[in-house]
Amino acid sequence: MRIKQTISTRGVESYTINEAIVNTHQPSAGDVGLFEVIKVDRHKSLQCVDKRSQTIFDGDYILATFGSRYATAQYEGYVPEKPMPSYDIIGAGGVVGVVKSQNVALNDYDPTSVRLIGYCCEPDGSVINTLFRNKQRIPFTGDVPNKAKIILSIGSTMDSGKTTTAAHIARGLKTTGKQIAFIKLTGTVYTKDIDYVYDCGADVSMDFSNMGFPSTYLVDKPTILDIYQSLLHEIGKSNPEYIVMEIADGLYQRETSFLLADKAFMSTIHNVVFSCGDSLSVASGLNELASNGIHPCMVSGCFTMSPLLIEEVEARMSTPVHTIDQMMSGQLNAILDLKTQPVLS
Fold first, then answer.
1. 10 CB contacts (<8 Å, ≥6 apart)?
2. Euclidean distance between CA atoms 142 and 225, whole angstroms
3. How many CB atoms are located within 10 Å of the residue 84 CB?
């Protein structure tokens, strides 16, 4: 039967299958395995290396990667602490782990379950691990290629509008005819977001999975910063004049929180745009950001779909509110161009 190779394993082209270590090898994030689908439920398709979402069925064989996931609207899942008889698919890009909790909206579903047939191994017999595999890991220095201006898109929560905001900023900036790049620095592998920003006009669009990471959840800060520098190096080949960058999830999420508090990271940022789902989260989020010395040049996101919510925010906050249509038109480029994000002291 054909093996469906998920996007989390791209770059893995040759391997041997070791079934003997299934019950003895402790899985780590990035370890690649051949799995049999036991029961399809929540995830009925997986994004594969051709970027197409392929339907899966009970009994299918998939090539997937162990990883963890933090998604408040989806799953909280982890690489298991020991070998198990079965595992859960926790991400549509082919991330396998064990679900700990899920949003109640998923209560009518069970995670799609899989059985590990064997680990994919290198010629020397070691288990293939995708993290920085065949990639140049560049230690973080904070150097920005081409002195590009980095516009950081962050949000109050998952699904607050960060990617849509970033995509329309990229499209608006592209009206200048300059080189635009996009980075999604954190999250769980699934290329929908980077593909969307590319479709909106970015000349190059990459994320953490380009460095072999199925997910950035629970990755330590030095490694996240190295991913950042490595992506900057790759994107630098296109000589970008602007880099739009998104950090996944909300302000309280682990990786988002420690990045925004890191002075060296924030010193690379030219401007910040903050997306929110409602008016109250704008106020609380801006206060939270101000405590870290971060002052967005504008707020946007899902709340801007409602004129009434815009009125609520504008009546109480001094930070300008702008819609994605305004961003896309290019009329806000002057605001994005003028640096309002100070280097943290």
1. 49, 209
2. 9
3. 13
pLDDT, tens only, 49-100? 999 999 999 999 999 999 999 999 999 999 999 999 999 999 999 999 999 9
Is-contact 119 33, C-beta < 8 A?
yes
- Please count the CA atoms within 13 angstroms of the CA of 251 that sit on its side-chain side: 21
pLDDT of residue 344: 47
pLDDT at 129 over 60: yes
CB count within 10 Å of CB 172 equals: 24
CATH 3.40.50.300 matches 145-337: yes
Secondary structure in 3-state letters for the chain: CCEEEEHHHCCCCCCEEECCCCCCCCCCCCEEEEEEEEECCCCCEEEECCCCEEECCCCCEEEEEECCEECCCCEEEECCCCCCCCEEEEECCCEEEEEEEECHHHCCCCCCEEEEEEEEECCCCCECECCCCCCCCCCCCCCCHHHCEEEEEEECCCCCCHHHHHHHHHHHHHCCCCCEEEEECCCECCCHHHHHHHHCCCCEEEEHHHHCCCECCCCCHHHHHHHHHHHHHHHHCCCCCEEEEECCCCCCCHHHHHHHCCHHHHCCCCEEEEECCCHHHHHHHHHHHHCCCCCCCEEECHHHHCHHHHHHHHHHCCCCECCHHHHHHCCCHHHHHCCCCCCCC
Do the Cβ atoms of 230 and 143 come closer than 8 Å?
no
What is the value of pTM for the model shown? 0.96
Q: pLDDT tens-digit profile of 141-174?
A: 999 999 999 999 999 999 999 999 999 999 999 9
Going from N- to C-terminal start, the domains of the chain cover 3-121, 145-337
End-to-end CA distance of the chain: 59
What integer pLDDT is reported at residue 342 of this predicted model?
Answer: 56
